[in-house]
Amino acid sequence: MLEDTGERIIPKEMKPENGMLLEHLARYTFATPYVKGRVLDIATGTGYGAQLVAKMKKKDITEMMGVDIDPTTIQYAKQHYHHPLLTFQTGDILNPDLVNEIGIFDTILSFETIEHVPDDKAFFENIMKLLRPGGILLLSTPFGQGRGKPSRSPFHYHQLTEEEFRELFLDYPNTSFYFQRGVTIEPKRQSRHYPLSVAVCVKAAEPGSHKSSIQSAFVQQTEEGPVYFIIDKTSGEQIVNQKTFYKALETIETKQMFR
């Protein structure tokens, strides 16, 4: 039996009535339409999610790799979650040489991981090194008091605010944000409280260049204040924060200059 390491699901907890397990499975199920090519599940844990995706997307992927920092957990995954397209190995996402060890990927899944590392910005930069241009990153995290502030979980260094989470993607405007309550993952509704978010980010071939897929941007006034939207040809209409909105406007102006 494996030791409980915080939010990681251990075998004795894998029961249908386990709400946390159902929430984890919901994120993997949500990810499946985006999954293709060579796929990485970082902080894969015992590997049940990686196996689920490999089974569901076996016609669309060439390889699925589950990576976790804990050797005992990886050994358990190898013994219990086999799939012909799936391999498991140990690795540290904060290791700057990880890209040389495992290569680059078309799709990366990173669910409930970034809050477990002391430097979320370094984590994000390393993730992007592992993602090929044109690839898709799906990254989730719970919200909290903010960077450098304590959270209720002893296993989390901190939990980002929604604004801090969005700011990680400022250089990647082709990002959509979804929000989770229980097993429901949906675009944000202004009247609802969401404990966590799932970002779907497409890494542009030339980030920040005039070849960005952003087509337009606009503001809608509501009773709760302005809501900022951008529209791009890949992800459609997205609600973004103010900084992302103005960065998108700069991108649109740059595109017009190069016409």
TrEMBL record:
Q: Which UniProt keywords apply?
A: Methyltransferase, Transferase
Query: Looking at the keywords, is Transferase present?
Result: yes
In what residue span(s) does the Methyltransferase domain sit?
A: 37-143
UniProt xrefs under InterPro entries: Methyltranfer_dom, SAM-dependent_MTases_sf
GO-annotated molecular function = methyltransferase activity
Spell out the SUPFAM superfamilies in the cross-references.
S-adenosyl-L-methionine-dependent methyltransferases
Concerning CDD domains, the annotation shows: AdoMet_MTases
Which domain of life, per UniProt? Answer: Bacteria
One record GO biological process: methylation
Pfam families given in the database record: Methyltransf_31
- Its transmembrane ranges are none
Its protein name is: Methyltransferase domain-containing protein
Q: Look up and give the organism this protein is from.
A: Salibacterium salarium
The upper taxonomy is: Bacteria, Bacillati, Bacillota, Bacilli, Bacillales
